[in-house]
Amino acid sequence: MTTIKIKGMSCQHCVGSTRKALEAIPGISNVQIDLEKGEATFDGKIDGQIVKKAIISIGFEVIQ
After folding, report:
1. CA-CA distance, 1 to 58, in Å (whole number)?
2. Are 44 and 2 a contacting pair, CB within 8 Å?
3. pLDDT by residue (tens digit) across 45-59?
4. For the chain, how far is it from start to end, CA to CA, in angstroms?
5. Res 45: pLDDT
6. What are the tens digits of pLDDT across the range 27-50?
7. Residue from 17, 8, 21 nearest 51 by CA
8. What's the CA angle centered on 7, arms 57 and 54, to 5 degrees?
9. Global confidence as pTM
């Protein structure tokens, strides 16, 4: 399982948008978003730049 920190999520709509963006990436499954922690976890071996690009495209920031 991979965990990434995401900056900018503030509501359930943000959670839904983030989940949808990650689930659209081939090879990612079991997406879980924790709004309080500002984290997304998922299964799958995916290039981090692909994930980062998907998050940025919906208006959020991935924190390294």
Report:
1. 22
2. yes
3. 888 899 999 999 999
4. 17
5. 87
6. 999 999 999 999 999 999 888 899
7. 21
8. 20
9. 0.89
Distances (CA, A) of 19 to 22, 36, 49, 63: 5, 15, 17, 17
Q: What's the Rg (C-alpha) of the chain?
A: 10
Distance (Å, whole) CA 8 – CA 45:
25
CB atoms under 10 Å from CB of 3, counted, come to 11
Residue type, 11: C
The mean pLDDT value of the chain amounts to 95
Token pair for 56: 């940025």
Give the H/E segment covering residue 44.
Answer: none
Q: How far apart are CA 16 and CA 49, in angstroms?
A: 21
